[in-house]
Specification:
alpha+beta, YefM-like fold, 2 domains, three-stranded mixed sheet, 4 helices, 3 strands, about 15% strand
């Protein structure tokens, strides 16, 4: 694990992010105390435009959960047919 001060992290964010993307964790310290830790994700995230990750993963449920976080309110006036159509497309 690498350690960066808050100032170092802010001044060279792309370099620290490159370490994380290679699988390394970065501890961020301020005044000698750890204030944050940046770690690579435990599982691969969805790609741009909701593309499917590796086979075997339930990408539809993950994508639906992501959309529900972004748009928590139901669509007003959506019919049952429209909802069924959307469920088939996801």
């Amino acid at each position: 694990m690498s350690v960066a001060t808050l100032q170092q992290f802010g001044q060279n964010l792309p370099a620290w992010m490159a370490l994380v993307m290679r699988g390394e964790s970065v501890a961020i310290v301020d005044g000698g105390k750890e204030v944050a830790r940046l770690m690579p994700p435990a599982a691969p995230a969805l790609t741009v435009n909701g593309a499917k990750p590796a086979a075997g993963e339930d990408w539809r449920k993950a994508r639906l959960a992501e959309l529900e976080e972004t748009f928590p309110e139901p669509v007003i006036g959506a019919s049952a047919e429209l909802e069924a159509f959307r469920a088939e497309r996801l």
